[in-house]
């Protein structure tokens, strides 16, 4: 009974993820999420990566570990995820996704499979320094790119107006700052620490 419930819960979660992915791929959802740079970069793209990561997390742990060994360990996973996510942050890549069907298809495939899945596979095998490297790289990339969008005197992405570009830039910088502060604060919290006894002699 325990294993049957476990299987059904994972199957149900997988179906929800599949439906969510299909909804994101519909023309209505794509038109809405890609109508502004903010929604495109800070909503649609993270959701695609999240779907892949959650789907990978639903797999049994021994299958994830076996697959990780076959592809060479955690480092190749991190390298692939950083490379793919960095590429899609480029203005030219965003423009291509809006104007070319093959580029749009590549975006919908690469983020779940080449960003979300590798990060989940590698995460528990990374040391604190390794996780810090991944997170600080992401924060800095988000902040630098956001600042570029703010100060650029012309449209960096041909598909979006300058005002839309500036709004996205400010949100990216603010998001990078809040995420960095939150991560930095979490380093000072030890959830597994033993509480201090009320009586010092205990």
Descriptive labels:
single chain; 202 residues; mainly alpha; 9 helices
* Low-confidence parts: none
Largest sheet report:
none
Roughly what fraction of the amino acids lie in strands?
under 5%
Give the strand tally. 0
Please bin the fraction of helical residues.
over 70%
Number of helices: 9
Q: What do the pLDDT scores average to?
A: 88
H/E series: HHHHHHHHH
Q: What structural category characterises the helix and strand content?
A: mainly alpha
What is the 3D form?
globular
Any overview of this molecule?
There is one protein chain. This protein is mainly alpha-helical. Among the domains are: 48-126; 127-188. The protein is built from nine helices and no strands. The protein has helices at 2-25, 27-33, 37-57, 61-70, 74-88, 91-99, 101-123, 128-151, 162-186. Helix 6 packs across helix 7 (101-123). It starts with a helix and ends in a 16-residue tail after the last helix.
């Amino acid at each position: 009974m325990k294993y049957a419930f476990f299987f059904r819960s994972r199957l149900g979660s997988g179906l929800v993820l599949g439906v969510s992915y299909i909804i994101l791929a519909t023309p209505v959802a794509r038109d809405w999420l890609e109508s502004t740079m903010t929604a495109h970069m800070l909503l649609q793209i993270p959701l695609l990566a999240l779907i892949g990561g959650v789907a990978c997390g639903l797999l049994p742990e021994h299958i994830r570990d076996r697959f990780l060994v076959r592809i060479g360990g955690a480092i190749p996973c991190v390298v692939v995820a950083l490379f793919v996510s960095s590429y899609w942050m480029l203005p030219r890549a965003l423009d291509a996704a809006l104007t070319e069907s093959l580029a749009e298809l590549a975006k919908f495939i690469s983020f779940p499979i080449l960003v979300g899945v590798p990060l989940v596979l590698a995460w528990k095998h990374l040391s604190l320094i390794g996780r810090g490297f991944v997170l600080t790289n992401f924060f800095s990339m988000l902040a630098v790119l956001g600042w570029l969008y703010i100060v650029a005197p012309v449209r960096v992405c041909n598909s979006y107006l300058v005002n839309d570009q500036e709004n996205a830039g400010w949100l990216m910088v603010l998001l990078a700052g809040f995420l960095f502060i939150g991560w930095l604060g979490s380093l000072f919290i030890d959830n597994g620490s033993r509480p201090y006894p009320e009586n010092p002699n205990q």
